[in-house]
Structures are given as structure tokens and as C-alpha cells.
């Protein structure tokens, strides 16, 4: 059997109880075929990247080990989005759940359905900060995630306080 691959998934939601959607999706990632969740970041609140006429987001990053190929993993992530009622409307519009495959080992892909590493991640604090929380020494184009996260504009990003505290 092939060795497991490491994948990092960005999670986001800003509709219908976003904290609950992200928390539930983090648990459900562990149930994907041939996949195990290794770690998850804290939850973060962030302003929307796209149209400003939508609620703020709750975001997190999860680290997985998987025996699925990148496209098979993407299919599983999109199926999970659908189970959460994801409707693909306007670009960067509101959503119940958004799951982005950020990194898959050190693989580089440029396919119609999938680009790896995720092309926008280095400009997004809501991705870099939780990703660096999980894998600060991981590098992207020769730079550590911790270094990239330290330089990104964090305006509008804040840790989500626990629901019970």
C-alpha cells in the first residue's frame, strides 16, 4: 500500500452558524476515506475577502494524512461541502462551508480543477496564520510559513473565543 501523503485544508464558513459548520467539518474530515485528521488549528474570525455585504467568516486549517490522490481528495472535500449545504453562487460570496486544498506534500499542480499550492494562500492571513500554527517550519518557495505569516496583513483577523468561555 502506498505511503500516506500530508495535506493541509483551509476551512471557512460565514452562514448558518459558521462556528458549528467549521467545527463539524473538522470532525468529518477524519471520516473521509483513506484519510485521518492529524491536527487542527484554533478557529479564527476574519473579514470577507470578496463582497463586503456579507458576514465575517470563521476559519481554521486542518492537517491530514491521506492515501487519496489530490483530485480524489478534492472530490471528497467538495462532497463534504455539499453535505453542509454549500451553494456556489457569486465568486467569494457567502457560504455555509468552504474547503480548500492548500498543500499536498510538496506537490505542484496546475490543473483546471486544482492548483497546488493554493495560489491565494500567501496573501490571506486567515490561511497563513492557522497554517503556521500547525506547521511553522514548513516552507513555501523557500520561505517558512512562520515567516510568511509574520509578514501578512492581519487586519480583521482574530482568534475565536471558546463557546464555553
Quick take:
The chain is of the alpha+beta class.
Instruction: Give the overall form.
Output: globular
| Beginning-to-end CA distance, first to last residue | 44 Å
Number of strands: 10
Order of helices and strands: EHEEEHEEEHEEHE
Give the C-alpha Rg: 15 Å
Structure notes:
By secondary structure, the protein is an alpha+beta fold. Helix content is 26%, strand content 27%. The protein contains four helices and ten strands, in the order E-H-E-E-E-H-E-E-E-H-E-E-H-E. It has helices spanning 18-29, 70-83, 125-134, 145-151, and strands at residues 5-13, 35-40, 44-46, 57-66, 98-104, 109-110, 115-116, 139-140, 143-144, 158-159. Strands 1, 2, 3, 4, 5 and 10 form a six-stranded antiparallel sheet that branches. A two-stranded antiparallel ribbon has the order 6-7. Helix 3 packs antiparallel against helix 4. The radius of gyration is 15 Å and the shape is globular. The chain starts with a strand and ends in a 6-residue tail after the last strand. The mean pLDDT is 92.
Topology (SSEs and partners):
Blueprint: E1 5-13, H1 18-29, E2 35-40, E3 44-46, E4 57-66, H2 70-83, E5 98-104, E6 109-110, E7 115-116, H3 125-134, E8 139-140, E9 143-144, H4 145-151, E10 158-159
Antiparallel strand pairs: 1-4, 1-5, 2-4, 3-4, 3-10, 6-7, 8-9
Helix pairs in contact: 3-4
List keywords for this structure.
single chain, 165 residues, alpha+beta, 6-stranded antiparallel β-sheet, two-stranded antiparallel ribbon, 4 helices
Amino acid at each position: 500500500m502506498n505511503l500516506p501523503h500530508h495535506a493541509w485544508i483551509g476551512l471557512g464558513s460565514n452562514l448558518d452558524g459558521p462556528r458549528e459548520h467549521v467545527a463539524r467539518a473538522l470532525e468529518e474530515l477524519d471520516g473521509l476515506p483513506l484519510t485521518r485528521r492529524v491536527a487542527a488549528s484554533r478557529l479564527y474570525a476574519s473579514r470577507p475577502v470578496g463582497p463586503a455585504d456579507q458576514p465575517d467568516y470563521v476559519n481554521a486549517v486542518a492537517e491530514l494524512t491521506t492515501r487519496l490522490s489530490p483530485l480524489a481528495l478534492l472530490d471528497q472535500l467538495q462532497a463534504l461541502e455539499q453535505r453542509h449545504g454549500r451553494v456556489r453562487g457569486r465568486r467569494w460570496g457567502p457560504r455555509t462551508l468552504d474547503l480548500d486544498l492548500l498543500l499536498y506534500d510538496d506537490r505542484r499542480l496546475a490543473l483546471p480543477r486544482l492548483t497546488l499550492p493554493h495560489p491565494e494562500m500567501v496573501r490571506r492571513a486567515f490561511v497563513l496564520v492557522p497554517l503556521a500554527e500547525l506547521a511553522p517550519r514548513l516552507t513555501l518557495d523557500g520561505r517558512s510559513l512562520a515567516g510568511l505569516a509574520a509578514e501578512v496583513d492581519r487586519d480583521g483577523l482574530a482568534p475565536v473565543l471558546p463557546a464555553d468561555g
